[in-house]
Amino acid sequence: MKHPKFLLALAGALLLANSPFARAEAREIRIAQQYGISYLPMLIVENQKLVEKHARAAGLGEVKVSWAKFAGANVMNDALLSGTLDIASAGVPPAITLWGKTRGEIRLVAAMNSMPNLLNTRNPKVRSIRDLSSADKIALPAVKVGFQPVLLQMAAEKEFGPANVFKLDPLTVSLAHPDALIALTSGSSEITAHFAAPPFAQQELRQPGIRTILNSYDVLGGPATFNVLYSTKQFHDGNPRLYGAFLAAFQEATDQINRDKRAAARTYLELSKDKSSVEEILEILADPQVIFTTTPQNVTKYSDFLQRIGSIKEKPASWKDLFFPEVHALPGS
After folding, report:
1. Cα separation, 163 vs 206, whole angstroms
2. Is the omega angle on the peptide bond into residue 116 within 30 degrees of 0, that is, cis?
3. Which of 21, 22, 231, 273 is 20 to 30 A from 305, comparing alpha carbons?
4. Segment 242-267 mean pLDDT
5. What whole-number distance in Å separates Cα of residue 139 and Cα of residue 175?
6. Residue of 333, 226, 330, 238 lying closest to 7 (CA atoms)
7. Cα–Cα distances in Å, from 22 out to 16, 89, 161, 237?
């Protein structure tokens, strides 16, 4: 749901950017996304050319919007740092890690969603993460830096104590969610577990012998933001109208999903080429734990942990320290 103060802040930013004193802006915006239903707003933005629409409304005329798809946050972060990407989209931990490493030169744009990730396994001997051993290989999009490996570290700290926070890291393997789904369900791969995002987690659980041993919400103590958008201060400050157009486009896509979830399910299937049924995707979208929103939720739980293990040097005093000011009016946490 859109927040009135957020709309006022966005409108104010666009008005300022439209002033005659505004500098010339970039004619292209380069955006990256990953795989899964959590990226549905990005699929809609791309398919409906919503950035182009809002750029024209902001007086920018025709702009080029370039899209890239990455399997994990590690490569995406490298692209953002090298200047070949303007907007990244990934889990909260890699975005906060980059914020810390760049001393705020990279900041978060907005939340994308809150939804649980599930650690699924086909190993009949494994009933909890305590049972995982060297015989297990856990697939996740990017080792060390992604959302899932950090959640695994948080779970290890909770289960085994602070001295064993990295205990499960040697078991992890980088594999894109679609490939990990195939590897786990085929039974012929070394992969015995997958820390999966929707809809891959739910698709795996429909197969006999696969079950969940960990829910990310259990680790975090409740609902929390899963994916975020993030960008460079240079792009944000130098392109206020284009940045605002992207943010408005993303909000419009988010509103579409929340307005009609059945239509959103059909859109996801059409654009992702997923072979699930509309009812299966609708079941995920209708889950009260799955929320599409630009409002950050419990993001400081991640930053507290990342500071504790040394991934960032200083904790942000507030969630607002992590984000560009356009979303500060939202009731985040």
Report:
1. 36
2. no
3. 231
4. 98
5. 6
6. 330
7. 8, 27, 53, 11
Sheet with 193-196, strands from edge to edge, namely 172-174, 138-140, 193-196, 118-121, 211-215
Q: Per-residue DSSP letters for 126-142?
A: -SSGGG--TT--EEESS
pLDDT tens string 280-315? 999 999 999 999 999 999 999 999 999 999 999 999
The whole-model pTM stands at 0.90
DSSP code at position 165? T
Kind and range of the H or E run holding 318: none
User: What's the CA gap between 200 and 178, in Å, rounded?
Assistant: 7
Answer yes or no: are the C-beta atoms of 252 and 47 closer than 8 Å. no
Go through the domains of the chain in sequence order and give each one's CATH number: 4-114+224-327 (3.40.190.10), 118-220 (3.40.190.10)
CA distance 222 to 174: 26
Structural tokens at position 309: 């293990």
For the chain, the maximum distance between any two Cα atoms, rounded to a whole number of angstroms, is 67
Query: What is the rounded end-to-end Cα distance, in angstroms, of the chain?
Result: 16
Strands, E assignment, the chain: 28-33, 64-69, 87-91, 106-111, 118-121, 138-140, 172-174, 193-196, 211-215, 227-232
